[in-house]
# Entry
Amino acid sequence: MSFSAQLLALPQWLAVFLLVAIAVSFSIVGFLIVHRFIPVQVRQIHNDVAGFVFATLGVTYGVLLAFVVIVVWQQYYDAEENVANESSTALVLYKNIVAYPDETASNAMQDGFLGYIRQAVGKKDTLRADQSFEGQEADINQLLSLIDNIVPDSEHEQILYTQILQNLNDLVKYRSLRHQAAHEELPSAIWLALIVGAVVTIGFTFLFGTENVWAHIVMMSLLAALIAVVIYVVIEMDHPATGVVNIGFPNSYSSILEIAKAPK
# Structure
């Protein structure tokens, strides 16, 4: 299990506290080491130049953080939209199957589709844990084979049959996109840039010289805490199927099972 997955398995407040504690501890320990070996008077001499360089460095890292946050937020939004589309498509598909004039074919399609729905609802927690889609894949393939073998006998049946095929294809598409969103992560190169950028940005503050050491420590700690919180946001948004903030599960699946159980 990756560090991100382990972090998201924790309560949100504890995960944020852990990241903040790591960043703040690094800033304090690193500063005390530099403070011990490089006197304040020596560092004060270079404050003007260091301030100019730090401003450029801070803007560069800030732009990188903003870019990454926008990217992961857009990916999360798209994944959430796909789940909503999957939910509405599943409900429409079930209604079209029930409305199919041929009762024998309709019942067969209902049994196959409800089997897929039960499999999906029964394993929705497992999906978030290990991303296992194999059982549902078998059910959806079986339903596709069943529908392919149906031959409409009238124009009305042909219209509904075409709509059912379209709905099923859309359902498979949105389900695959949900599966893909659960697996996608930021490239390692971006994570490398984020971590190295955070270390360099925080570490650069060690080189400033201030008479009040405690004020220096407080300012560095606040900067480190802010960076840690933003990185947590990136981790949370980069894993839309896990954590406190997640895309959830298609709501209509449970509704379809309730409709199927209701007396006709």
User: Anything to note?
Assistant: Confidence is low (pLDDT under 50) at residues 126-132. The chain is about 80% helix and 0% strand. The first helix runs from residue 3 to 8. The CA atoms of residues 129 and 242 lie 8 Å apart.
